[in-house]
Predict the structure.
Amino acid sequence: MNNVPNIKIGIVAVSRDCFPESLAVNRRKAVIAKYEEKFGKEGIYECPITIVESEIHAQQALADVQKAGCNALCVYLGNFGPEISETMIADWFQGPTMFCAAAEESQNDLIDGRGDAYCGMLNASQALSLRKTRAYIPEEPVGDAAQCAEMIHEFLPIARAIVGLQNLKIISFGPRPNNFLACNAPIRALYDLLTM
């Protein structure tokens, strides 16, 4: 019997409205291309909706990845990133979520050469903490397209473990397990896992 969950991860790009949305879109496309080149097309989905500082975009992106059957999510900061709407989608999504961000490729993309998302990752992590929203952030979460593709691939076993735990079934003592909780005290940690 194989009870290892299959993971389908949706990639949602986010952008500040003071940056060109096309920068985040093109960077998302580059990450997807690198991922598919190295790891194949199976288990990855490119959400066509870019969240640009809008709760409505976050709702649309969430509906899109859910419709596509994604059970894991990658919020990709294609540039600085809107910490409110990007953390809203992480808060609403019912599966494992990760964050990663684009590094500057050149200084030709934007005025004053700003196009990286280092500061955006800092704001995202703080906003996630304020919302008490759990998300996976790699140790070095900012990279070029190939590095972000690697980060996403490294997230898959983490997502698989979380999805497996979320679907864990506990068979406990007694014909009416809820009446025998005292007898089940040693498995408290398993009950706690179900609420993560």
The first strand starts at residue 9 and ends at 15. The helical segments are 21-39, 55-67, 83-92, 118-131, 145-166, 188-194.
